[in-house]
Amino acid sequence: MAEITMTQALNLAIDEAMAEDDGVFCLGEDVSAKQGGGVFKVTAGLTEKYGENRVRATPISETAIVGAAVGAALAGQRPIAEIMLMNFVGVCMDQIVNHAAKLRFMSGGQTPCPIVIRTTTGVGVGFGGQHSDMLEAWFAHVAGIHVVTPSNAADARGLMRSAIDANDPVIFIENILCYGLKAEDPGKGYRVPLGKAAVAREGSDISLITYGRTVLDALEVAGELDKEGISVEVIDLRTIAPYDEETVLASVNKTGRALTLHEAVRPFGTGAEIAANIQEKCWDKLKGPVRRIGGTFSAVPFASHLEQAWIPTKEEIVGQIKASVGKA
Amino acid sequence: MAEIDRDKLLDIYTRTMKVNRTDEKFRELLMQGKVAVMYYCVRGQELVSAAAMAALEDDDYVVCTYRGQGEQTAKGIPMEKWWGECLGKATGTCKGKGGTMHITDPETGIMVTTGVVGSGIPIANGLAMASQNNGDRRVTLVSFGDGAANIGGFHEAMNMAQLYKLPVVFLCQNNRYGEHTAYADHTDSKTIAERAAGYGMRGVTVDGNDVNQVYPAVKEAVDRAREGGGPTLVEAMCYRMMGHFFGADFSYMPADHIEEMKKEDPLPKLRKVMLERQFTEEELDKIVADIDEQIDAAVQHALDAPLPDTDEIYKDVFEEVN
């Protein structure tokens, strides 16, 4: 099987969904052929196949983009809206939170809103405070939205297909630093179900629960610690909300220890919710407090060394794991 | 401009009175304490809503606001379902989970009622975009007030609609108030419709109290949209004769101005037009009496209807997947 990058994986998933269903269409800033198929080329080549109505390059108008996606979804289509960078969701939160997320409920089930909102972000590329944040917790806190992020190219293909299939809104977060990751192509029609985590590496001493780019750090650390006799189980949530509680709790019940890890700032992050849930439901099995790692509680800085100091480091992950298992 | 045909005029009258009698009944129930819910009165704006809905086809889409009773009842939501929803009953359009500010009834084309000023405008574009994509020839009409014309989404949506020539009609019901703030205190442009020119769009301002102005203007916009001619911003000048919502203080509305605006009341004006067009007093009274009867029955049905089950709070959050 051929290898594909995450960019190609996303493109293939969208392409095959558009080929199968005329109601699937893309809209967003710079997404069509005239602009080169999106700033990260995820929608490259689609205009040529499906025309400009189905790959709509929009004005810089996030509220109009998401609003249009909501309306088209109510009319039975399956729009894939791109919000170029995740921080820009601040411009269109009303459409996402008050409308996309709630219209199914408020209408008594009459108007589901099947939209995918693709967005990019990530710390470590020098974009500074307004182009780097992971804001998944904002959406995880709202009933009615799936929040999804892939950590590898194969999952990207499968999660995107499932996101387009879903009959509810999906925030699909793509990490800039992951676009170039390669994996064996899982092939046409491949789907990773929403709400299902992956045990990315099995272990017995501690459950390290994470998602997105930090899965790579987690796997690296787990490999290193294995040599020191510490067995780390890495859970890749894949769907951040609503998350796969069953897999998480089963893992923690087995290992008796848990550490949550995300790039987003630590206070009020998704790790806090997961940690609280573990403490309520695995209390008898826990050998120590659930630990949390997240980004520093400040804006993402520009200078490279500041940025590296800001994000969770592998040393920090190692330190927390060793402290948890009593080998610090 | 050609005279409105007599059947259409009767249709508009009937819809107008349905809106008006529903409004009167709602206020009566609130005054009597029989119901205690948020209600945004439409007194003074009945004709605009009714004429606009009469300009649409049954399967056209409508997006409206919390002050949307006019669009909702005039578009044809069955009264029992409408009252059921307003009273928070299981028989309501949304099983009692939406309420007065979120009436939704896709069967009659009421796709979204938003409680957020201006938020329906970008959504209307999406409904219209779907029609443009699949060629179903539907038109989407979105109704909003003058206050909504100052939210960012209005400008984003106007520009986008014109850019794509979407089959959408933007109906601004300029009722002279954005919540508690008078038009002159929130906007310095002479009209809302003149803003259309800034987007390269067609914009018209008409007297929303005159059926011979408001209906032809909306109809022309609807026809143009359906034929691929793109969107129109129709501004219908009207007057919100009461406070922002039922029970709200409206001492900020100058009493002499209210008195002056009463002379423009669309209802007596419409009745005059009807009589001029050879409808009789008896015919017109009969229409109102029939409507009242239907409303009374619908209200009673809603009052007697069961409350939604408590476990509804867990349902319709996501699609139920078994």
Automatic annotation (TrEMBL), chain A:
* One Gene Ontology term of the molecular function aspect: oxidoreductase activity
Q: Which ranges carry the Transketolase-like pyrimidine-binding domain? A: 4-181
Record carries keyword Oxidoreductase:
yes
**Secretion signal span:** none
Which cofactors are named for this entry? thiamine diphosphate
Q: Which domain of life is it from?
A: Bacteria
The protein's name in its UniProt record: Pyruvate dehydrogenase
Q: Which organism is it from?
A: Erythrobacter litoralis
Q: What is the lineage of its organism?
A: Bacteria, Pseudomonadati, Pseudomonadota, Alphaproteobacteria, Sphingomonadales
